[in-house]
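tokens incoming
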């Protein structure tokens, strides 16, 4: 996720410094961003040469963090979703000049929880990208209880500048907006698969060829208006009663995890990826998403 976020800022014309504890990861980040940019250029989505955009990026080991961020204006944290690790990193970042905005790509934790114990919690804000971060337009901006209004507005303007579509999350809630909706949908999808109503393959096609097909041009609430709210209400009265309300992970997913079937990373999940490299699959995904991005930008 971090490499896509860094690419987004660099494509937006900004100088970027990327930090990691591992030199190999920094090298992989540089190479992946280069490949991403060449793909953007192939689709006519890059007004500048990839080499020019890459020249805006620097790569440093995390031990240089305090020294190298002294003249930065905006920081995005994108480390694993482990709260103690995030708090430890933000404690280090607290030494930055007080005008530097400190953001986190988290969707699991509230910003109040991450900023706990900091001297300057007013400049801490959530900035949640979606994979792949260099393509998907949306970012969710979420504040902590102490986040200053000015920090929210500066962050929103920055996201617009780098070509993103920001939405503001009005309250601190775990999962924010999109992940809560995705999780609710997949709870029901897994239930339908477990009950033998549909296969994973047919569900994916149903999602892609129906509501997924129209969502980019017509949001759910706009669709409700077109359907007629009286019609929607009567349908809800029937369907809400029979939806899954389990609070436990899908048994099918639990079993797959036990067997080591973790998805693309292990070569098998709901689909069999053996015989194809991870790079091939990701490039195919990105090519399809870039086609969608071109159309989305025309709406």
């Amino acid at each position: 996720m971090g490499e896509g976020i860094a690419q987004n800022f660099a494509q937006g014309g900004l100088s970027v410094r990327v930090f990691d504890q591992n030199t190999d990861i920094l090298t992989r980040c540089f190479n992946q961003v280069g490949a991403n940019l060449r793909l953007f250029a192939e689709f006519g989505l890059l007004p500048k040469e990839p080499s020019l955009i890459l020249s805006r990026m620097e790569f440093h080991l995390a031990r240089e963090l305090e020294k190298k961020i002294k003249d930065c204006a905006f920081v995005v944290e994108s480390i694993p979703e482990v709260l103690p690790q995030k708090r430890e990193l933000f404690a280090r970042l607290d030494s930055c000049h007080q005008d530097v905005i400190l953001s986190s790509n988290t969707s699991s934790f509230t910003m109040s929880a991450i900023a706990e114990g900091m001297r300057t919690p007013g400049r801490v804000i959530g900035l949640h990208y979606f994979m792949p971060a260099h393509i998907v337009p949306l970012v969710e901006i979420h504040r902590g209880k102490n986040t200053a209004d000015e920090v929210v507005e500066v962050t929103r303007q920055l996201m617009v500048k780098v070509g993103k579509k920001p939405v503001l999350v009005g309250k601190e809630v775990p999962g924010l907006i999109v992940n809560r909706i995705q999780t609710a949908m997949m709870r029901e999808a897994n239930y339908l698969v477990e009950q033998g109503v549909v296969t994973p393959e047919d569900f994916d096609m149903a999602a892609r060829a129906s509501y997924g097909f129209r969502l980019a041009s017509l949001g759910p609430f706009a669709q409700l208006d077109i359907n007629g709210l009286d019609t929607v209400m009567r349908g809800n009265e029937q369907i809400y009663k029979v939806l899954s309300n389990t609070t436990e992970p899908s048994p099918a997913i639990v079993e797959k995890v036990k067997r080591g079937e973790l998805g693309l990373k292990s070569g098998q999940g709901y689909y069999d990826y053996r015989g194809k490299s991870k790079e091939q699959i990701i490039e195919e995904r990105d090519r399809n998403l870039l086609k969608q991005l071109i159309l989305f930008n025309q709406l």
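note: The longest strand covers residues 124-129.
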